[in-house]
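Per-record layout

source: Moschus moschiferus
name: Diacylglycerol kinase
length: 734
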Amino acid sequence: MAKERGLISPSDFAQLQKYMEYSTKKVSDVLKLFEDGEMAEYLQGDAIGYEGFQQFLKIYLEVDNVPDHLSQALFQSFQTGYYIEDTLRKDVVCLSDVSCYFSLLEGGRPEDKLEFTFKLYDTDRNGILDSSEVERIIIQMMRMAEYLDWDVSELRPILQEMMKEIDYDGSGSVSLAEWLRAGATTVPLLVLLGLEMTLKDNGQHMWRPKRFPRPVYCNLCESSIGLGKQGLSCNLCKYIVHDQCAMKALPCEVSTYAKSRKDIGVQSHVWVRGGCESGRCDRCQKKIRIYHSLVGLHCVWCHLEIHDDCLPAMGHECDCGLLRDHILPPSSIYPSVLASGQERKTSRISQKTVDDLSLSTSEALRIDPVSNTHPLLVFVNPKSGGKQGERVFWKFQYLLNPRQVFNLLKDGPEPGLRFFRDVPDYRILVCGGDGTVGWILECIDKASLPFVPPVAVLPLGTGNDLARCLRWGGGYEGQNLGKILKDLETSKVVHMDRWSVEVIPQQTEEKSDPVPFQIINNYFSIGVDASIAHRFHIMREKYPEKFNSRMKNKLWYFEFATSESIFSTCKKLEESLTVEICGKPLDLSNLSLEGIAVLNIPSTHGGSNLWGDTRRPHGDIHGINQALGATAKVITDPDILKTCVPDLSDKRLEVVGLEGAIEIGQIYTKLKNAGHRLAKCSEITFHTTKTLPMQIDGEPWMQTPCTIKITHRNQMPMLVGPPPRSSNFFGFLC
C-alpha cells in the first residue's frame, strides 16, 4: 500500500535501492559538485529546486533518466517548507536533508555515517547541534524506519527520549563527541542508520527489526509483543524486546571466544529465556506453553529447548547439539596471548586488550577446534537472491558461531581465509551465485593455504549452474538451513577442473570490452548464446529495476532469445573462426553453426544441459571416460562421443556446436536432448576474424579479432550434495 504524501511508496523505495546497488557514487562526491563544483548554479542557499534535485539523482544514481514518478515522489517527500531570505519556499528542498537521507541508505562504517550526518546539520561549523537540528536528523531517521518496517507511531517518542539521553552533559545541545559516543552505544540509532553492527564481545546485542508471525513475549518487560507486531530480535541469542525496551535490555549472553584460560576447551550451556519455537521440551518431551507467557529456556549453542523446571536436570557441559560437526564453540577460540605462555597478573582478558593489539582477528585470536569435527567457514553475499542473502546471514549467525560467518560485501573473503588458515579439516560454504563462488575459488587459489578446504554452495544467484551440478539445487527458497547443514556433513568431495583463458587480441582499430575473467569454472562460449547474454547484461545495467527476480530475468532472457532467433546475428559462425583442439584443427566445414560452447560442467543458463544426457552401459560407473584413460586427450569420433559422460574432474572439456537460439530454447525446455557434440579435449584454441560476442561463466563481452587459448589450470575440491531419491539427471555424480 502506498504511503501518504511525504513518503515514497514501497515499490518506489525498492526501485531506488536497486539503482543504488549498481551505482558507484557517494553522497559526499555529489555534495562537493553542488557546493563548489559544476552544479553550484542549482544551489539556493542550502536548498535546490526540482531541476537541481533531478541533477542530484542523475549524478548520484548514475542513470541518464530517472523515472518522473520516482523523481517527483522523492522530491515531494522532502518538501517541508524552507526559508530563503525570510521567505517560506515550498518549491525547494533542503540539500542537507536529501544528502542525509541518501547517506543513511549507503553502506559504510558506523563512525563515518555518524560523523557525516553530524557535519551536514552543523551548518555554522561550531561542533554543536541544537535541538532543531537534532529534530531534522530524527525526521530523516523516521524515513528510514518507515522502510525498515518499524512501527513509526511508537518510534518518535523513543527517538526523542534517546536524543535527550545523548546530551550527556545536560547542556541542551549535542557535541560531536557526544554524537559519536551515542552512535556507538545506542541500538535504535545504529539500526536506523541502516548499519551492520560491528561484532564485539562486550554484551552488545546484534539487533534487527522483526515482525513476528506468532505471539511472542518481551524478554525485558515480559508483556506480549503481539501477532504481526514488530520488535527487535538479537541475531546472536534470540533475545526479543519491544522497540522501547531495547535501551534497558540485559546484556547479550553470547561470547564468541574464550576470555580466560578456564574457558578454553570445555563449552558450557548458555541459556536464554524464551525462544522455544518448537513448543516442546527436549528434556521431558512435554509441551512448553509458549503462547501464554515468557516461559522456557533455549541454549544458544546446542539449541536445546527446555522447561524452566528442567534446568537443574541438565548438565553443565554443552556438546553443541546436532550441528556440532560444523560449530566452532567459544571454548575453541581464544586470544593468542593466552597460548603464548606469558605470565599475566590475571587470566581475564578484556575486549579492550584484544582490540588494542592492533592486529587482525586472525592474528589476535587462535582456533583449536573440537577433535573429529569439520568447522564451517561461511561466506554470504547479502545482496544475492533479493533479501534472501541478508536473511541467510542472520540465520547462520545464530546457528553457528558468528565468527564463522563473513559478509562478503564488507571485507571480501580474505579475512575469513586468514582466520581459518591453520584450522584442520574445515569446510567452506559459499552463499551466493556462480559469480560469488568463482570469486571465492580465485581467492583460495591465490591464498597459498596449507590446506585447501572443500567448498559447498548455497545457491542464491539466478542461474546457479554450478550448484545444480553439485546437487545443491537451482536456488535457495527458504528451506531449513539446519537440514542443509546436515546434508553437508554427508557430502562427498569431487575435484573440479579449472581452466585458464588467455585472450591475445589482433592489432585492429576496434576496441574490445574488458575480458571479465581469466579462469573458467563453468563454461565458455562464442556466438549466439553469448549474444543473448550480452544483450541481457546491457539491458540490466541500464534498467536494473526490471531485473529484480529470477522469474523476471528468465522472461527477459526469453525475449532476447526470441529476437536473436529472428535476426541471427551470429549466422555462419564457422566462417569467422577456426578451432584447434590439442593442436589439431577441428573440421566445421559440414556444419552451419551460430555458436560454440566449451563446457566444464553440464549446466548452462540456469539448467540447460547442452551436451545432453548419456545412457551408460549397465554397471559401468565411469563409462567411457575411465576406459579411455589419460592417453585420450582428444575425442572427435561421433560414435564414441555419443557414449561420453560429462565429468567435471576428468581434465577434459566438452565442445558443443549450437545451430541457433531456437535450438538453445529447445534444449532448455527438454524438447531437444542436446547440441551437436564436437569433441572432448584437454586444450582448445580459437582464432577469430571479426568482432564476436563471448562469455565466461555467464559474464559476456564483445571481443575483437583475437586468439583464445584455453588450458587446464588446476583442480579445486568441491562438496557434492547427497543424491536425490529419484535418478539423478547428471549421471557423472551418481
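summary: Residues 550-567 form the longest helix (18 residues). Confidence is low (pLDDT under 50) at residues 1-6, 340-360, 617-624, 727-734.
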